[in-house]
Write a structure and sequence with these properties.
Mean pLDDT: 84
Low-confidence stretches: none
Number of domains: 2
Structural class: mainly beta
Oligomer: single chain
CATH class of the largest domain: Mainly Beta
CATH topology of the largest domain: Immunoglobulin-like
Distance between the termini: 97 Å
Helix content: 10-25%
Order of helices and strands: HEEEEEEEEE
Number of strands: 9
Length: about 170
């Protein structure tokens, strides 16, 4: 008595292999395009410029302009419409980087193209940002500063922007 040791016919085996290849391909495409959240996280794409700005007599602040790219949430605010959350770090002339915190309530739901942020100093050496300058701003010292924008969702440095206050 002879037995057929094949578990599947050749036709069924080829159909199963094709199905597995298509399934794996769809999973990879879904993860890369963000259709399947959590597998791969997208880094925010933003183009930002940082320039010194004089708001009055001897009052200099750093002006961040979001030129183009994704809308992002600002760290420490209740924004929810951005693709990722960013943190703003400032290296003042003292040389040790500090986290720039929100100074006033940001009214927009995300920081997007065409919007400005102002980085200023308050009396005990605390650096804050706002969408509008406030009256408690201190004059930034004439020196070199470095602004770093970090995507906190995936922990990636997006920009390092040098700024010279005159």
């Amino acid at each position: 008595m002879t037995y057929n040791e094949r578990g599947l016919s050749e036709c069924v085996a080829q159909i199963l292999i094709a199905f597995l290849v298509i399934l794996v391909t769809l999973l990879i495409i879904g993860a890369m395009t963000g259709v399947i959240p959590g597998l791969l996280q997208k880094t925010a794409f933003i183009v930002v410029t940082a320039t010194p700005y004089q708001t009055g007599d001897e009052t200099h602040v750093i002006l961040l302009y979001h030129k183009q790219g994704d809308k992002v949430n600002l760290n420490g605010t209740s924004q929810t419409d951005g693709v990722s959350e960013i943190a703003i770090m400032l290296t003042p002339p003292s040389g040790s980087p500090v986290l720039v915190r929100p100074g006033t309530t940001i009214k927009s739901t995300a920081w997007g193209p065409g919007q400005y942020l102002v980085i200023y100093e308050t009396p005990p050496g605390t650096y804050l940002y706002s969408d509008l300058p406030t009256v408690d701003m201190e004059i930034l010292k004439s020196d070199d500063y470095t602004v770093q924008i970090i995507d906190t969702k995936v922990n990636v440095l997006l920009h390092t922007l040098p700024v010279k206050i005159p």
